[in-house]
Every structure is written in structure tokens, then in C-alpha cells.
Amino acid sequence: MVSKSEQTGSPTVERRLPDWFKVKAPGGESFLEIRKKIKGASLNTVCEEAACPNIGECWDRGTATFMILGDTCTRACSYCNVKTGWPGTTDPAEPIRVASTVKQMELSYAVITSVDRDDLPDYGSGIFSETISQVRRTTPDCKIEVLIPDFEGELESLERVVNAGPHVLNHNIETTRRVFKKVRPRGNYDLSLELLKRVKEINPFMPSKSGMMVGLGETKAEILETMQDLRDVGTDLLTIGQYLRPSKRHHPIIRFYRPEEFKELELAGLEMGFKHVASGPLVRSSYHADDQHNAAIDKILDSANTQTKS
């Protein structure tokens, strides 16, 4: 039987973390070495800024997600731990520093994301493009995933990033249509879908990716609806994770999803046609991103070969 709270998406707020959220505290040798290199290059990471629960695992694996264009976001989403304000300036040397750090870390896969920069004429797309180019030049074997903001729907900025040649283009939808405006008041659900659709129009062979948080007050039916919306615009890869409240001033956790519920969403996503779905309580958009890229490329190539033969 479905409870009233499940039907409305507005159950009692839950606060205590369930047992399955226990993670190892970061502090391994690789973690400390990576943090030293990143701080030495005056770089920001979303791992730290967004208080990611996987920071210990990912950094001990020798991977990290770089956050370019500063550490101050022009928007104020109610779930996000990144500070907000009006940043003003950009650092033209930042792409070189990112590329140098990627090379020093000997990464085979790098994720590059940013704060929203609505204060800039190109929304920061030029720095994105230059960072991709610098990493490709200095570490040509490194795969690059970019996690971009919506650029307020400006097509030229999106084209600039896609044409720079990242291996995966990621833009997170974050939540369902009904909940969207409550937690992303300056975003637009349909604009985000349109951006993902345009990626495929610019480059049909570039894997597109999106991510969702659950626990913000949505229903399961709404999650499935959003997943289908993403598939309808050709999104290849999907991540689904539990929302964790960064502080008391952020949006409350409405409820915790159990591991078996995440598994159900993963299977539903694969049935919809996603090439890979990473779904779990601690999954975030960059979690094991290299595995997702490889799955997408294999299936895109298989599809292209099948079409050629037919």
C-alpha cells in the first residue's frame, strides 16, 4: 500500500542518517597527496566545495573533479553548499593550472565543472573550452568529462564547449519538474532538457549525461517521469543519488531512499534505454565517471556499426 506521504511527496522530514551512509573518513596517502597538489595550484574542487561523501574513495583512487571559474556561484540553489555572490573576475591562467595538475596526477579521466557564472557574457564557456584544449594538449590520453551549467540557454556558449571536444557532456537536471522551482529558483526544467537535446544535435556521437538527487520531496512516479524526459532528449548516462543536507540552512531531507529502491531505479533506467545508470545512496554525478564513459562509447559504437551494416 502506498502511504499518503508517498502520494504527495511531502512526508515527515528525516534527519538521522541511516546505517548505509557510513563512509570511511578521508585521509589516505593518495588523498593527502592530491589535496596538496590541488592547493598548490590554487584550484578548487567540487569534491570539497560540495562536501561530497565520496571524497575519500575518489581521491584515494587518484581521481578528482575540478571546479573552474572560481568558488562563488551567481545562483543560490537551496541544496548546494557552494557559496553564492557576484564573483566578477576570471583567471585566464586557470586552464593551464588545471592541465598541469591533471598531468602531474597522471589522470586517465578528468571531470571539469564550474559554478554558475551568469555575470559573464559567455557564462564562462570560453574558460571551459580553453581548459579542455589545454588538458588535451598536455595529457592527450586523458578522457575529459565536463559538467556544465545551463548557460541560460545560450546556444553559442554550448556549441563552444561541445566543439572543444570533451569526451562526455554532463548537465544535471537535479530533481523532478514539480520540485524543481522550489530548489532551483533561477533554473528552468525545460531549458535543461533543451540543452541536453541540443548536445546531440551538435554532436550525435558525444555521450550526454545527467544526474538527479532524491529525497527532496518528489514521488517515485515523478522520478520515473523525469528519467523518461531525459531519455526522450537522447540522454545516454544517468546518475541518481540521495540528497544530503549540507547544513541547517539548506533544504531539509524529506526522506531517505533505501538501497533496494536505488536498485529498482537503476533497472528502470536501463529498461528505458540509458546506456549506463549509476544509482545508489552515495552516488554523485562524477562517481566512477570513467566506467560510465566506457559503457556509453561501447554501446554508441555498437549502434553505429549496426546502422552501417543495415
From TrEMBL:
Keyword Iron carried by entry: yes
* Binding residues for [4Fe-4S] cluster 1: C47, C52, C58, S286
Binding of [4Fe-4S] cluster 2 occurs at: C73, C77, C80
GO molecular function terms listed in the Swiss-Prot or TrEMBL record: 4 iron, 4 sulfur cluster binding; lipoate synthase activity; metal ion binding
Q: Which UniProt keywords apply?
A: 4Fe-4S, Cytoplasm, Iron, Iron-sulfur, Metal-binding, S-adenosyl-L-methionine, Transferase
Enzyme Commission number(s) from the entry: 2.8.1.8
Q: Where is the Radical SAM core domain?
A: 59-275
Q: What is its main location?
A: cytoplasm
Its annotated pathway reads:
Protein modification; protein lipoylation via endogenous pathway; protein N(6)-(lipoyl)lysine from octanoyl-[acyl-carrier-protein]: step 2/2
* UniProt cross-references to SUPFAM superfamilies, sorted A to Z: Radical SAM enzymes
Name one cellular component (GO) term.
cytoplasm
Annotated catalysed reactions: [[Fe-S] cluster scaffold protein carrying a second [4Fe-4S](2+) cluster] + N(6)-octanoyl-L-lysyl-[protein] + 2 oxidized [2Fe-2S]-[ferredoxin] + 2 S-adenosyl-L-methionine + 4 H(+) = [[Fe-S] cluster scaffold protein] + N(6)-[(R)-dihydrolipoyl]-L-lysyl-[protein] + 4 Fe(3+) + 2 hydrogen sulfide + 2 5'-deoxyadenosine + 2 L-methionine + 2 reduced [2Fe-2S]-[ferredoxin]
* Family recorded in the similarity comment: Belongs to the radical SAM superfamily. Lipoyl synthase family.
The name this protein goes by in its record: Lipoyl synthase
